Amino acid sequence: MKIIYSFLRLVRYPNLLFIILTQTLFYFCIVSPAYAKYGNQSPELTINNLILLVAASVFIAAAGYIINDYFDLNIDRLNKPSKIVIDRYISRRWAMFFHSFFSFLGLFLTGVVALNIRNPLLLVFNIICVLLLWFYSTTFKKKLLSGNIIISLLTAWVVFVLFVAEVQWWSGDLLPSSNAAIIAVYKGAALYAGFAFIVSLIREVVKDSEDELGDRKNGCRTMPIVWGMMPTKVFVSVWVIVLIWLLAAIMIYALMQQWVLIFVFIVFLLLKYLLGFISKLSRAFGSHQYSAISRDLKWLMLFGILSMILYYYYLG
C-alpha cells in the first residue's frame, strides 16, 4: 500500500483530479451550453471522446510529473528529502518506463479522439506538450523565466484544448464568424485559460522562491537566484495587480449584465484573497512561508475554475 500511495504522490494525484474537474466543468458548463444556446448541432466532442481526451490529458500530465522528479532528484534531496519517491520506493528504471508508457498512452488516446472528430491539431499540440514537458525537466526548468512560462502555457492548455477540439479546421476558418457557438466557447476558453496562465505563472515563481536553496546548489538560474528575492516579489506583485485589474473588468461587465452572483463571487473569494496575498508575499521569508503561499494559490485556482458553475447558471 505504501508503494501505491508513493506512486500516487509521484504523479501528483490531486493535480490530476484537478485536470479532470477543470475539463469536465468546462465541457458541461461552457461548451455544451454554448451549442444548446447558439447552435443547432452538437459539440464535436461526444461524451465518449471527452472521456478519452480527459484521460489523455491526465496520462500526459502524470508522465510530466514523473520525468520532472526523475531529473530533479538531486535538487529534491536538498529541498524536500522526505517527499522523494524515485530511488526510495520506485527505481529510476521503472520511473522512466512509466514516463514513456504514460506519454505513449496519452498520445494514443489523443490520436483516437483526433481521428474520431477529424481534428489532427489535437494530436499535434499534445505531442508538443509531451516534448515541452521533457525539455522543461531537462533544460528549461533551470533557466530564468522560460521554464515558468512553459508550465503556465501547459496549464492554460488544459482548458484551451477543449476549444481546439471544437474547431472545424477542415473548413479553412479557425474561428468562423458565423458560428456563435464556437465564438462563445472561444471566449470562455480565453477567459479561463488566461486566468490559469497568470495564476500558474505566479505560483511557479513562488515555488522557485521556496526551492531557492536546492536550486542554487545545483546550478539553476531561476528568478530568485538571478534577480534576488525582492525583485522577484515585485515581479509576482505586478502579475497579481494585472489579475486584479482583469477581475475588476469582469466585475464591471457582470454588473452591467446583472450577474450578481458572479460579482459577489469575485469580490469575496478572488479579489479578497489576492489583496491579502500581496500582504503575505511582502512578509514571506523562508521556504515554509513560500510553501504555504504556493498551497494557497492552488485554492485560488480551484475557486476560479469552480466559477464555471456560475457561468453556466447565467448563460446555460
Approximate strand percentage: under 5%
Element pattern in H and E: HHHHHHHHHHHHHH
* Beta strand count: 0
Low-confidence parts, pLDDT < 50 over ≥5 residues? none
With helices defined by DSSP (H or I, 4 residues minimum), what is the helix count? 14
Q: What is the typical, i.e. mean, pLDDT?
A: 90
Query: What structural class do the secondary elements suggest?
Result: mainly alpha
Largest sheet, in brief, is: none
Into how many domains do the coordinates divide?
1
Query: How helix-rich are the residues, as a percent range?
Result: over 70%
Q: Rg from C-alpha positions?
A: 20 Å
Apparent shape: globular
- First-residue to last-residue Cα separation: 43 Å
